[in-house]
Amino acid sequence: MTLAYWILAALLAVFYLYAGGKKVAQSREQLRPMMGWVDRVPMPLVRTIGVLEVLGAAGLVLPPLTGIAPWLAVAAAVGFVLIQVGGIAVHLSRGETRQIGLNIVLLVTAAVAIWLATTWV
């Protein structure tokens, strides 16, 4: 179970570090080809989502690794579930039903990470 958590946590952390880092560092024009929804949301909100994704990635890995407040890993995974619920809602509101596949995979992966983390927290 612990190995499964670390595999999922590493995959999620890498994904969210990349995606969150892009949202934090890039302009709307640079984000638009990959994330068309940025036109509908104020940039401060896009940046906030990016910061939360980067912090969540750290929260999945650092607390269990250091043994300091390992329950934060569960909180980070719950946050990722909520981010993906929001992402699915945005895509559905834009009529982009075909684009929610990645959101669903990330949501399920984060939910499994929650389950795995609660087995040892």
UniProtKB/TrEMBL annotation:
The keyword Transmembrane helix applies. The keyword Transmembrane helix applies. The chain crosses the membrane at residues 6-25, 45-62, 68-88, 100-118. It comes from the Bacteria. It comes from Micromonospora humida. It holds the Pfam family DoxX_2. Keywords: Membrane, Transmembrane, Transmembrane helix. InterPro entries: DoxX. It is found in: Membrane. This is DoxX family protein. It is a multi-pass membrane protein.
